[in-house]
Design goal:
globular; five-stranded parallel sheet; 16% strand; alpha/beta; 7 helices; disordered N terminus
């Protein structure tokens, strides 16, 4: 009898996540990949850029910041982002490229959007070069200064 009452109580409870009846506290499926807050790592040596990107993306994503490739490597040991916004020139002219190649060599790597103004300084069209994954293994490319609407559209297109 006691088990029947408990079962009836459980059947009338609603899931804290989706609101469906019959879940004890939540459905396992409600905590699927689609429903959890996506994680973004912002890697840039310019604190103002990191702050601006964080301000644009705050509220919709779990954000972490790294001030260069070395601190990003340390953070990536414990933080598993869905997306990395990555500057090119940090500790060296190629720090961002090197980090992108290293990350994409791992199993189940996150998406990477390269953010840079280096193409203006070098007269190299990195956007067209970024289409070659062997040369630059990134999933997207945006030129600084980034228009907030463009950034949001690109992020949503890659990770939702």
């Amino acid at each position: 009898m006691k088990a029947g009452i408990i079962l009836m109580m459980l059947m009338t409870m609603t899931c804290d996540v989706c609101g469906k009846k019959g879940a004890r506290f939540y459905h396992y499926a409600c905590f699927s990949e689609e429903s959890r807050m996506k994680k973004i790592l912002i890697v840039d040596d310019d604190a103002d850029i990191r702050g601006a990107l964080s301000a644009v993306l705050s509220g919709g994503y779990e954000l972490k910041e790294a001030d260069g490739s070395k601190s990003a490597r340390t953070l990536l040991q414990s933080f598993k982002p869905d997306l990395i916004l990555l500057d090119v020139m940090m500790e060296s002219m190629t720090a961002g490229f090197d980090l992108a190649r290293e990350i994409k060599g791992r199993s189940m790597p996150p998406k990477i959007i390269m953010l840079t103004s280096v193409d203006k300084e070098t007269n190299i069209d990195f956007k067209s070069e970024a289409q070659d994954p062997a040369w630059l293994p990134v999933d997207g490319y945006l030129t600084k200064p980034v228009v907030p609407k463009t950034l949001i559209e690109k992020v949503k297109g890659l990770i939702g």
